[in-house]
Amino acid sequence: YLVWPLLVAGETNILFGDQASGKSLIALYLATAVSLGLTGLPAGLVVRQSGPVLLYDWETRLEPQRRRIERVAAGLRLPRLPDIHYRKPKTSVAHLIPQIRRDIDRTGAIAVIIDSLGFACGGDLNTPEVAIPAMNGLGMLDTVTRIVVAHHGKAGRSGNERPRLPELLVPIAHRLVMNAPAVPLSMQGLVSGYVRDLKEAKE
Fold it and tell me: Residues 37-95: pLDDT tens digits?
């Protein structure tokens, strides 16, 4: 593990759930912990290795992500911001793999965030021609841990029905489902710990 027991080291880990369910914030929380080698995390989470993190953001822009990172740092009362290198890609992740490799070599990154997978693929994750090249490409980045944010639209689901990871992704990723009540207890502790610390920091 890179972060026990959530992020499997050297593998593709998917933070999956509905839109606006906190996946990107959790990814940045974990990236902050890895970047700074934080200890004493909520729910018994343990960072097993520390180092720089790369963030490839297809969804937003630098400033919103920087504000999120600053919020995480404030909630944790950190004296400085984590070593997270931001990139705004202009092509699909399948075509970006050579550039990601160069970025890894240049920064010494040990983890890469992909936010989010649907935009990074540029199509429907349920279709082989879209999902397979992207996931195979990410699998080639075997010197780093991949943290992949992916979301499921609420259309077509009712009540508290659990979001379903596209079947094509199941065999090739260690998945983490974010939505309650299916969210792991360790992740619930992580979220509640962050919210508590953030509230205290604002007071």
Answer: 999 988 788 999 999 999 999 999 999 999 999 999 998 899 999 999 999 999 999 99
* d(C-alpha 28, C-alpha 53), whole Å: 10
What are the two backbone dihedrals, phi and then psi, of residue 48, each rounded to the nearest 5 degrees?
-90, -20
CB of 147 closer than 8 Å to CB of 141: no
The pTM is what? Answer: 0.82
Provide the β-strand partners of residue 151: 17
Quote the CA–CA distance of 113 and 18 in Å, as a whole number.
Answer: 18
Name the CA radius of gyration of the chain, rounded. 16
Burial of 98 (0-12, 13-18, 19+ CB in 10 A): exposed
* Distances in whole angstroms, Cα of residue 89 to Cα of each of 59, 92, 100, 153: 10, 8, 10, 23
